[in-house]
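Purpose: get a first structural picture of the assembly so the mutagenesis plan has something to point at.
Setup: four entries, given in the order below. No constraints added.
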Amino acid sequence: MYVLMDIMVSPSGVGVSISPYVARCQKIFEEAGLTHSMHGYGTNVEGEWDDVMAAVKRCHEDLHEAGAVRIISHMKVGTRADRAQTMADKVTSVQDKLAAKSRS
Amino acid sequence: MYVLMDIMVSPSGVGVSISPYVARCQKIFEEAGLTHSMHGYGTNVEGEWDDVMAAVKRCHEDLHEAGAVRIISHMKVGTRADRAQTMADKVTSVQDKLAAKSRS
Amino acid sequence: MYVLMDIMVSPSGVGVSISPYVARCQKIFEEAGLTHSMHGYGTNVEGEWDDVMAAVKRCHEDLHEAGAVRIISHMKVGTRADRAQTMADKVTSVQDKLAAKSRS
Amino acid sequence: MYVLMDIMVSPSGVGVSISPYVARCQKIFEEAGLTHSMHGYGTNVEGEWDDVMAAVKRCHEDLHEAGAVRIISHMKVGTRADRAQTMADKVTSVQDKLAAKSRS
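Result (structure tokens, whole complex):
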């Protein structure tokens, strides 16, 4: 089961600046060989369900080891039965609609 | 690693009424022996990380089998390193603060 | 436009215990006369769009005044065009499906 | 109060393909003069609180007029009291940490 995920990891008990912790998770997604792309409020990650979820678990374990007392991850997890779709397909699909609109 | 989760499962391609699908997931959490409690925008579920995540995966698989073309789950996943805390503890903690405020 | 909302307010720069801050928002929803109900990962709030959103804004302003350096609220905001529905209706609808299943 | 928001708009009762509806919201953010950037699971939008929230309301109203029976928006809404920060700053901050790590 292929999954398109969005995840925002929020460690607490580590001060206001959480970017070093977010960077650790980026590294974990990278090492897991998952397609990933960061935006202003999280990271899009895609791959097989078990691989993606294993990476999320490693991310929580790693941040706790790095000192985070408490972690909340906000995730969107999407699967579909009809056809394969990548994260890039989703963005392209909306952009096509916008382009069609501005032509008309 | 103990996890407190909130999950809202959104199947699409099944019409506007999604309550029969939500009911299927409730049943999966129940059968998995996980503590769970439904509210107006999702379900609080708690348990060991692997058990909770296995139930979420079963839920996606089950709803696809039941006809959902596309499913997006919105999840909040919380872990902590300092002490055990249940979902009920979290609610009680806020209620205590409110009670203290109204007494003062 | 009537809205069913779920909100989880996360202040940071205030230590690990955020329940006093969550309690302040509860009080704001109460004073605004909005129907609200707390669960383990947030609060269900319902009412007219402008009233609900004004309360959310007051909540951010109030927590900043109370010392929160940074606040992120995670919100689910639902509106519908077909019929009126309360938060309680949503829960009842799923419970009816579960009861029907266990009878069959 | 400046706000960094992430929003994912989910209309239902309109079939599985929701990209035309997402495109309508993009257009509303554009016309409102708000900085916005789409990713695989939503759109980052930033601006003054009232301007951003007015655009979100218009988006719900517009999609209902366009036929969406039911709409749920998942939003992350962030404000801070200490300093101005744009969405681009947040991404840059994590990238700097990653670059520092790979140099060390």
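The helical segments of chain A are 19-31, 49-65, 87-103.
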